[in-house]
Design brief:
Elements lengths: L3 E4 L4 E6 L5 E6 L3 E6 L5 E5 L5 E6 L6 E5 L3 E5 L5 E6 L7 E5 L3 E6 L2 E6 L2 E2 L3 E2 L6 E4 L5 E14 L8 E14 L5 E6 L4 E5 L4 E5 L9 E3 L5 E4 L5 E5 L11 E3 L7 E6 L5 E6 L4 E5 L4 E6 L6 E6 L5 E6 L3 E6 L6
Antiparallel strand pairs: 1-31, 2-3, 3-4, 4-5, 6-7, 7-8, 8-9, 10-11, 11-12, 12-13, 12-14, 15-16, 16-17, 17-18, 18-19, 19-20, 21-22, 22-23, 23-24, 25-26, 26-27, 27-28, 29-30, 30-31
Length: about 325
């Protein structure tokens, strides 16, 4: 497939491939989605709501996606454009959604988080403030919920109404669970990262970012946490004893541009970065450099992701530009 580009009159909220790498879906702020068939490049537009799509992610199976909407609905979107309602909370926004290939779905509505499976969702798990981030652990057993004052860890299949609280002052705006389950990391409103090493829940803090960290991404080999929020890709080493006392790997700078999105290749150390200029660059952490993959659109990159098979990259920006690109990274 040759590179494809589309445009719309609304910001791109998310770009997500399904788990079988057959289709890419873009969620937009005007309530529509664009679905692209990778085999032939065909694209269709689907209206999910009269308002806006707030979140979009892979569903737990191979084919579809979960979408959170500003009318309080959680829906499933199929590659053929079919929409099915899964939950509804009138008067609330569904801004956080997550799923796991192990068969778990989760979403946030106001201060409550819900987790379940194909049969439905369990009871509300309440928090002191709005759910700002969700992450399911690699085994599909626990749910991490970011909120003001830290992160709450819930056993998904437990009836216990009390979570394990990982406390840290301030507002935590996103959360990411390490692929080995050994760390929970958040981005905060104060332009830094905070994390906890499990099971001891010992604290880790990375500060000094000039802007808010909007994207966290884990590489698999070697083991790094890549982040946006600076004029370089910042990659913290998590192999062995973790990042404490270690300096990050920094590369990919393009003058004064700020990196707004990062995405790690599903295997190895491949990485992509999106900039506030609309440029996209790709490379490897081991190279300590990036090569330009897409010229500037003069609009901030708001969505960036690899397909699960690592063959494609999808990106979108604040002015509604959408791209699907076949990518072949040279060997490490």
């Amino acid at each position: 497939m040759t590179p494809l580009s589309f445009s719309a009159d609304a910001s791109v909220v998310a770009a997500v491939f399904n788990r079988q790498s057959s289709h890419a879906a873009f969620g937009l702020g005007d309530g529509t989605a664009r679905i692209v068939t990778l085999a032939d490049g065909a694209a269709c537009e689907v209206t999910l709501t009269d308002g806006g799509i707030l979140a979009l992610t892979q569903d737990m199976d191979e084919a579809g996606w979960l979408a959170g909407l500003d009318d309080g609905r959680l829906v499933r979107l199929e590659p053929d454009g079919t929409i099915a309602g899964l939950a509804k909370h009138p008067g609330k926004w569904i801004e956080q959604v997550a799923s796991s290939a192990s068969g778990v779905r989760a979403y946030g509505a106001g201060k409550d988080a819900f987790a379940g499976d194909a049969k439905g969702f369990g009871p509300a798990r309440s928090h002191p403030s709005t759910v700002a981030g969700l992450a399911i652990d690699p085994r599909g057993k626990r749910l991490a919920v970011a909120h003001y004052g830290g992160v709450s860890l819930w056993w998904i299949n437990s009836t216990d109404s009390k979570p394990k609280l990982l406390p840290w002052k301030g507002s935590h705006i996103s959360v990411a669970w390490a692929p080995d389950g050994g760390y929970v990391m958040t981005a905060t409103q104060e332009n830094d990262l905070h994390g906890w090493r499990l099971p001891a829940a010992s604290d880790i803090r990375m500060s000094g970012y000039p802007t808010k960290v909007k994207a966290l991404a884990w590489s698999t080999k070697p083991y790094f946490l890549a982040t946006s929020g600076a004029d370089q890709v910042i990659c913290w080493p998590f192999a062995g004893a973790g990042p404490s006392g270690k300096s990050p790997v920094e590369f990919g700078g393009r003058g004064t541009q700020t990196i707004t999105r990062v995405a790690c290749h599903p295997e190895g150390d491949g990485i992509a970065a999106g900039y506030d200029s609309g440029e996209i660059a790709i490379g490897r952490i081991s190279w300590r450099r990036m090569a330009l993959a897409l010229e500037a659109t003069k609009s901030e990159v708001t969505a960036l992701t690899w397909s699960p098979d690592g063959a494609f990259l999808a990106a979108g920006d604040d002015d509604g530009h959408m791209h699907v690109m076949p990518v072949l990274l040279p060997p490490a």
